[in-house]
Structures are given as C-alpha cells and as structure tokens.
C-alpha cells in the first residue's frame, strides 16, 4: 500500500506538467526587436527587406502557445500605435507576404483574447 501514494504523486506531477502554460514567455521587447527591420517597409513601402521576413518567421516560430500568441498580438498593437505613418494594409498583409499563415487578422481591431493555437 505504500506504493499507491507514490503513484498518485507521480500522476499529479505529470498532470501539472501536461497542462498548457497560462503565461507567455515572450516579452514585448523581443517582439519589437524581432520585427524592427520591418518598420521602414511598413511606413514607406518600397522593397521588403529579407531581414523583415526572417523576423516574421522567427516570431511565428517562437509563439507556440496560446498565451504566447496573445502576448505577441498585444505587443504588436501597442508598438504599432507608437509608429507614425504605419500603413495598416501592409501590416495586415505582412505575414502572407513573408510566407507565414496566421489564422487571424493582423489589425488594431483584432481581439487578442480570441487568439488560440488552433489553426
């Protein structure tokens, strides 16, 4: 019978580790730095720097969990509001232009709370 409490303890520990994270590990500074190469393009149009798409793809790969994706969304909305002259059409099409499929619109009106990892 002494074996049963050990099994129960192991099951509890496994259950806790299998739960999805509730907080993001991505910081807004990381989001803005990763996409810094995109700002000139998103304001002035012109040629899209390859470093911008590298940043878009890197950020997409970093945001594995629902909390991460929600955090990225919130960070982008805050950062975007600070950039004067931002072309919202270019912003909305940036993931597609860089070959990344995002299952929600990239817009200031996007409700970040509705974002999940479901595709």
TrEMBL record:
InterPro entries noted in UniProt: Bifun_inhib/LTP/seed_sf, Bifunc_inhib/LTP/seed_store, Plant_nsLTP
Gene3D superfamilies: Plant lipid-transfer and hydrophobic proteins
Pfam families, per database record: Tryp_alpha_amyl
Keywords: Lipid-binding, Signal, Transport
Protein name: Non-specific lipid-transfer protein
Source taxonomy: Eukaryota, Viridiplantae, Streptophyta, Embryophyta, Tracheophyta
Residue span, Bifunctional inhibitor/plant lipid transfer protein/seed storage helical domain: 28-112
Family stated for the protein in its record: Belongs to the plant LTP family.
Residues spanning the signal sequence: 1-24
Keyword Transport: yes
Task of the protein: Plant non-specific lipid-transfer proteins transfer phospholipids as well as galactolipids across membranes. May play a role in wax or cutin deposition in the cell walls of expanding epidermal cells and certain secretory tissues.
